[in-house]
Amino acid sequence: MDDIRERLRGLPAFPADLPVLDPEAVPADPTELFVAWLNQAIETGARQPHAMTFVTTRRDGTPVGRTLILKDVDESGYHFSTHRTSRKGVELGRNPRASMVFFWRESGRQVRVTGTARALGDDVSQADWEKRPSYTGSPNPDWQVYTLDPDEIEFMQAREDRNHTRVEYARDSDGAWSHHVVTTPAG
Ligand SMILES: Cc1cc2nc3c(=O)[nH]c(=O)nc-3n(C[C@H](O)[C@H](O)[C@H](O)COP(=O)(O)O)c2cc1C
C-alpha cells in the first residue's frame, strides 16, 4: 500500500499549458460555453469527449454515479439514453433531480450540470435505439431518451498552481441565467 501511495503522489495532476477561463468574458448563456468546450474537446482528439458521470440518488438518499454518453444538447436540456427499468431509470422515476459531470483531462476542464430529468417521447427514444450498433430491427419499449433540464451549471478550468477558476451559472424561476465566480476552496 505504501507503494501505491508514493506512486499516486508522484503523478502530475495538471500540465502547465492549460487554457485560461476569463470570468469577465464568459457568455450569458451557459450552454454556449458548454458547446464551445465540448467542440474543443472533440476537435483536439479527446477520447470519448461525450462521456460523463451521471449522478442519481437511491431511495435512502445515497448518491450513485455511473458513466453515460451525452446524446444531444438543445433548448430542452442535455440528452442521455438508457433503459427505463435500469437502476438509474427507477431512481429517476422516484427523484428526477440529477447531475452530470464532464471531465476533459487534456484541457483540465470540468463541467457540472445539475437539473431535473424528464423523459422524452417514444419517437425520440426509438429513433435513438435504432441508431445503436446493437440494433437488430426490433423496437425496444424499455429504451428511453431523457433530457436533463439544467438550473445550475458550473465550469471549472484547472490551473497548474491549483488556483482553479470556477464560474457557476444559476437559472431563476423566469428562466434567466446569471453567473458568478465560485470562491470556496477547490483542490
Ligand atoms: C464510456 C461508457 C459509456 C456508457 N454509456 C452508457 C449510456 O449511454 N447509457 C447507458 O444506459 N449505460 C451506459 N454505460 C453503462 C453505465 O455506466 C452503467 O453501467 C449501466 O447503464 C447500468 O447503470 P445503473 O445500474 O446505475 O442503472 C456506459 C459505460 C461506459 C463506461
Order of helices and strands: HHEEEEHEEHEEE
CATH superfamily: Electron Transport, Fmn-binding Protein, Chain A
Q: Please, how many domains?
A: 1
Bound molecules: flavin mononucleotide
Model regions low in confidence, pLDDT < 50 over at least 5 residues: none
β-strand amount: 35-45%
Helix content: 10-25%
Largest sheet: 9 strands, antiparallel
CATH class wording:
Mainly Beta
Output mean pLDDT: 96
Textual characterization of the structure:
- The chain is α+β, with helices and mostly antiparallel strands.
- The chain has one domain (21-181): Pnp Oxidase, Chain A (Roll), CATH 2.30.110.
- 21% of the residues lie in helices and 37% in strands.
- Strands 1, 2, 3, 4, 5, 6, 7, 8 and 9 form a nine-stranded antiparallel beta sheet that branches.
- A hairpin with a 2-residue loop joins strand 3 and strand 4.
- The radius of gyration is 18 Å and the shape is globular.
- The model has no long low-confidence stretch (mean pLDDT 96).
- The protein binds flavin mononucleotide.
- The site of flavin mononucleotide (FMN) has 12 residues, from strand 2, strand 4 and helix 3.
Question: Which helices and strands occur, and which strands form pairs?
Answer:
Elements (H helix, E strand, L loop, with lengths): L1 H9 L19 H14 L7 E7 L5 E7 L2 E3 L2 E7 L3 H8 L2 E8 L4 E11 L2 H9 L12 E15 L7 E7 L5 E5 L6
Antiparallel strand pairs: 1-2, 1-5, 3-4, 4-7, 5-6, 6-7, 7-8, 8-9
The structure holds flavin mononucleotide (FMN).
Flavin mononucleotide (FMN) binds next to strand 2, strand 4 and helix 3.
